[in-house]
Structures are given as C-alpha cells and as structure tokens.
Amino acid sequence: MFDIPFLRPRLVEKERFLAYYEEIEATRIYSNYGPLNGRFEERVVAEVFDGTGSAVTVHNATVGLMLAISQSKRPQGRYAVMPSFTFAATPLAAEWCGLEPYFLDIEPGNWQLSRAQLEQTVERLGDEIAVVVPYAAFGSAIEMADYDALQRRGIPVVVDAASSFGSTTAENDAHFGKGFGGAVVFSFHATKSFGVGEGGLVYSADRELIRRIRQAGNFGFAGGRASVSQGLNSKMSEYTAAIALAALDQFETAKETRRTIHAWYRHALRQAGLAEQGWAEQETRGLIVPQFIPIRCPDALGNQAVVQLLADRSIEARTYFSPACHQQPQFRSHPRAPLGATEQLAARIVSLPLWEGMDERIVHRIVQALASLGGEANP
Ligand SMILES: *Cc1c(COP(=O)(O)O)cnc(C)c1O
Q: Which keywords does this chain's UniProt record carry (predicted)?
C-alpha cells in the first residue's frame, strides 16, 4: 500500500442515484436503450453539446470505437491510421473491425498525432486508408480543422476522445468535438474524469451515423428481429444510466475539483523550478478535466526509475502510455512510420496521482519528491 495511491476513484454516492433507481423499479425496464439511457443521451446533447448533433451510449469506449470504426470505415480500405502513443483499446478496436493499424508518430510538445506525417501518409496510402483514428491525448483538445478537411475529402475520422468528456476547445469554449461530422468516442470508465464504472458515449453531428451505430449496437436489428449490419451488443444498462445521470448532476463540481488540483500542481511545479531541471508538461489546448497529471521526466532519469524512486517515498505513479502500442507484442508487426518522438516520450512519460479528495499538501509532497529525484539520478 502507498501513502499516496495513484487513483482513488469516487463515483456518485448511492443517495444521489437512488431516485433514478426507483424509476427503474417502477418502469421495470432494465436495458435496451430504456428511458434513463434516453434521458442521459438527451441531456448530454442539450447540456454538453448545446443541442447540436446526436449521441448514443455504449457499454464501454472500446466497443464504442469498434462500432464507430465499423460504421465509418471505407469498404475498400485496409488501414486504420492512428498514433502509436495511445491506449491498446484503439488498435484493438481497429483489429476487431478487420483493419490493420498503421502507426504514426506524435508531435513532441503536445503529444498529439503528427500532422506532417498524417499528410504524407494520406498522400502515400490513398484509398488504402479505411479510417483515421486520432487520439485527443489526455483530454487535450486537438485542432479539428484538418480532420474536418479529411472528412470532406471522404476519408472517415473517428476520434478517440476517451479522456475528453468535459473538455472544451481553445477557440470558443464549446465542448470538444461539438459539431464534428465524424464520430467522437468518450469513455466513462471508473478511472476517467467522468466515471460510471463501465460506460461510454459516441457523439457526432451526423445523426444518421449515430442512428447506424445505435442499430449496430443492438445486434444490427432494424426495428424487427432480422440483423441488417455487423452488429454486437453495446447497450448500457439502465442501472449504469442511473449512475450516469447522477454523475452529470454533479459534474460541474467534479470538474472544478479536478481543475483546482491541476492548478495546485502547476503552481507547485513552477515554484520547485522543475522545468529548469528538465521536467515538461504537455502543451495543451482548451480546458481539460484532468484524469491524472502526465509529465515528461528529464532525459537523465527515465520513467521506470522515477516510478521506483517515487514508490520508495510511498507515492504511486504510473506510465501511460508506455510501452507505446507498436512496442506491444500484439501490435509489433503492424506497419508504421518513423516513431522517434513516440519512443522518446514512452521512455519518459510519468503519470502522477490525481483524485477527488486530494488536498494541496499531497500535491506538494509529490512535487517535492520529484524535485529531490534530479540529484539522485546524476552520477
Ligand atoms: C480508457 C481509454 C480507452 C478505453 O475506454 P474503455 O471505456 O475502458 O473501454 C480507449 N482509448 C483511450 C485513449 C483510453 O484512455
């Protein structure tokens, strides 16, 4: 056990979803896009996306990615172009859709899919590209103009926005993904900023795409009992929808709490002069609801050493996303562009604890521990 664990998920208290549970008992509808799922989807579109577009709940974001890719991909295409610096769920979803992941590098400062490599790859692979799957790294908004342009050229885009629920864009304070014509997939896993246990949501400005995803998520049934598309069961239960509605009721408070902790970190990192020692935060866009604090450690350290040295001080840190996807046995044989920035970051990325209930003293203790590591690493 650590004095300071990496995560201490806190979902909504039972008192807050009890009223929703009672509705389930009254209606005796437990699943199949029931009334609570419907209400949650409507509230998300109205309150989060300002009434623009359409959304469907899913049992988790991995299944959401599978459905979004499967319903968007070009039939003649072969590759799902994506960053290697993402969670294993992204290439796994592509594999389940019969596609081959094609890994690209990230940009060194913002850790997002390399726009230069994407442009070259689109030129080189042409019609062999079935879909492009950028990952909005650690909840940071990405510049969507290039992806809008791809969509207009007929190249479908599915955004892995797993950790972006609640994030806004830099330009106009709108929710990340609002108005996008491709699919945007959010995760509501217990470890994400908006957690319900297991759950997720696919959003798009394209209502027809969401309608097809909803249908595919219910065995491909189109009204009757005959399957008309390569479906599966992705439905979120009404119990989960009850928790999701209660989580939405108090999301503003949760956002504030997480952003306050992030601000403590920034202040403490600056005060301790960690940038001068070679530590670097992600260059982000828009306002994030941080899931944890990702940071790049100095070249002289290396993330495994940092995790060990922090553990010696009873602080639990992790290393998302290291190893990068192309370094994992399941994905090693997939084609890829040169991945220099990804390999650099995968050897240095450290994820620091963030959970609701953390106080400023804990943040100081973590940052002081980081500040003390520089000395130890120098021979
Ligand atoms: C969490 C995560 C997922 C998977 O989400 P689940 O809801 O757990 O299936 C996919 N991609 C990224 C980048 C994630 O962080």
A: Aminotransferase, Pyridoxal phosphate, Transferase
What span, in angstroms and rounded, lies between the C-alpha atoms of 226 and 115?
A: 42
Residue of 160, 164, 291, 328 with the most ligand 1 atoms within 8 Å of its CB, for mutation: 160
What's 245's domain CATH number?
3.40.640.10
Last residue of a domain, one of 249, 277, 296: 249
For residue range 179-221, what is the model confidence (pLDDT) as tens digits? 999 999 999 999 999 999 999 999 999 999 999 999 999 999 9
308 CB-contact burial (10 Å; exposed 0-12 / middle 13-18 / buried 19+): exposed
Ligand 1 lined by 200 (C-beta under 6 Å)? yes
Domains identified in the chain, total number: 2
| Average pLDDT over every residue of 253-266 | 97
pLDDT digits (tens, 9 = 90+) for 13-61: 999 999 999 999 999 999 999 999 999 999 999 999 999 999 999 999 9
Report yes or no on 8 lying in a domain: no
Tell whether 5 is covered by a domain: no
Q: Give φ, ψ of 135 to 5 degrees.
A: -110, 125
- Ligand 1 contact, 158 CB (< 6 A): no
Residue 263 resides in a domain: yes
Reported as a single tens digit per residue, the pLDDT across 266-316 is 999 999 999 999 999 999 999 999 999 999 999 999 999 999 999 999 999
Q: Domain of residue 361: give its range.
A: 251-373
Confirm or reject: Cβ of 160 under 6 Å from ligand 1. yes
Indicate whether 271 and 352 sit together in one domain.
yes
Distance 256 CA to ligand 1 centre (A): 23
Q: Which of the listed residues 185, 218, 249 is the one where a domain comes to its end?
A: 249
For atom 14 of ligand 1, the residue with the nearest CA is: 162
Answer yes or no: is the C-beta of 59 below 6 A from any ligand 1 atom.
no
- pLDDT higher than threshold 70 for residue 378: no
* CA end-to-end span of the chain: 30
Instruction: Give a yes or no: residue 228 inside a domain.
Output: yes
